[in-house]
Amino acid sequence: MLKKITVKEWLEEKEEDRILLDVRTPAEFEKGHIPGAKSFPLFSNEERVKVGTLYKQVSPDSAFLKGLDYVGPKMSGFIKWARKLSPEKKLCLHCWRGGKRSGSLSWLLSMAGFDVQVIEGGYKAYRQYQRQNMVDQPYQFFVLGGRTGCGKTAILHAIARQEQMIDLEGLAHHKGSAFGALGELPQPSVEHFENKLYYNLGKQDVNKRIWIENESKSIGRVFLPQEFWVKMKAAPLINVERSFEERVQILVDVYADYDSAGLKKSFINITKRLGGQHVKTALEAIDQNDFSTAAAIALRYYDKAYQYMLDHNSSPDIVILNIEGLSAEEAAEKVLQTVNQ
């Protein structure tokens, strides 16, 4: 049985036992995909290129016949693969946009007894819907800010035990500074970061607060979508403050266990901004396991950068909150008490 379904219908009616299959090429899937989808390519990367070239340079008919040459020997394999992925035989398929690839596979799998849905407009329609949804929904963002070393991520995770929170740095696999890639998985593409962000937003209750961290437009190599950035900059900002010494210790606790070579490389990468002598001193401190000195040097640079950001912040409501001496859990309680007053 085959049924066409819109993106909105799929998002609202998602069934736990219906497996989402992305039938685009592995390269397309890697660049970006719907979170939770499984790669189920009709063509390999190379096959897709050859079929596309024939379509443009020869004729659609030639491309169609070449596609059949590629797909024919794989047909029984597709059915066996689908049975392993979905013993219940309930599937939802999508391709890029036109529906030819998903339509072909949906016909085959329907003939094999699968209950198949096909997302109209494919992956492109999903991206467009989620982007527009970001604009249309009245998300109630609350932004947690503060200088480097205030432990904002730990505070946000403590807040998340009581309220909604989206960990932007977690989605980006990056802590948002020159040292942000240390200890993280490779970053997703910009496109897939957006997909993960939109997916997480879709799980939130728009009638309740959603906490996020105050970020630059870029987090490592990925960027916050413009429509998200606009709403973030218009949201209330709770800016937490700790003593310089406290922040040095928090950075030492976070970064001292990382590979020294990675730490040194991160300092070298910001030589122009930090100054050659400061970097030299920081590298020597790392060699001597004096991570406090290295952290203090980094903080002096980041404090200037953060103060500039705070001075030019467009938030209509900025609250400065001292959390010196508080644990992440205690700081989270103070933040929530403050916004609830």
Gist?
The protein is α/β, with parallel strands linked by helices. It has helices at residues 7-13, 26-31, 45-57, 60-71, 75-85, 100-111, 122-136, 152-159, 168-172, 190-202, 226-233, 244-255, 260-269, 271-274, 276-287, 291-311, 328-340; strands spanning 2-5, 19-22, 38-39, 90-94, 115-119, 140-146, 164-165, 209-213, 218-219, 222-223, 237-241, 318-322. It has 2 domains: 2-129, Oxidized Rhodanese, domain 1 (3-Layer(aba) Sandwich), CATH 3.40.250; 139-340, Rossmann fold, CATH 3.40.50.
Q: Which stretches of 5+ consecutive residues score pLDDT under 50?
A: none
* Gross morphology: elongated
Average residue pLDDT:
93
Number of contiguous helices? 17
CATH-derived topology of the largest domain = Rossmann fold
Number of domains: 2
Question: What does the radius of gyration come to?
Answer: 25 Å
**Sequence of strands across the biggest β-sheet:** 1-5-4-2-3
Can you identify the CATH class of the largest domain?
Alpha Beta
Could you say which structural class the secondary elements and strand pairing correspond to? alpha/beta
| Main β-sheet description | 5 strands, parallel
Give a topology summary.
Layout (H helix, E strand, L loop, with lengths): L1 E4 L1 H7 L5 E4 L3 H6 L6 E2 L5 H13 L2 H12 L3 H11 L4 E5 L5 H12 L3 E5 L2 H15 L3 E7 L5 H8 L4 E2 L2 H5 L17 H13 L6 E5 L4 E2 L2 E2 L2 H8 L3 E5 L2 H12 L4 H10 L1 H4 L1 H12 L3 H21 L6 E5 L5 H13 L1
Parallel strand pairs: 1-5, 2-3, 2-4, 4-5, 6-8, 6-11, 7-8, 11-12
Antiparallel strand pairs: 9-10
Tell me about this structure.
The protein has 341 residues and is an alpha/beta fold. The chain has 2 domains: 2-129, Rhodanese-like domain (Oxidized Rhodanese, domain 1, 3-Layer(aba) Sandwich), CATH 3.40.250; 139-340, Rossmann fold (3-Layer(aba) Sandwich), CATH 3.40.50. Helices cover 53% and strands 14% of the residues. It contains 17 helices and 12 strands. The protein has helices spanning 7-13, 26-31, 45-57, 60-71, 75-85, 100-111, 122-136, 152-159, 168-172, 190-202, 226-233, 244-255, 260-269, 271-274, 276-287, 291-311, 328-340, and strands at residues 2-5, 19-22, 38-39, 90-94, 115-119, 140-146, 164-165, 209-213, 218-219, 222-223, 237-241, 318-322. Strand 9 and strand 10 form a beta hairpin. It is elongated, with a radius of gyration of 25 Å.
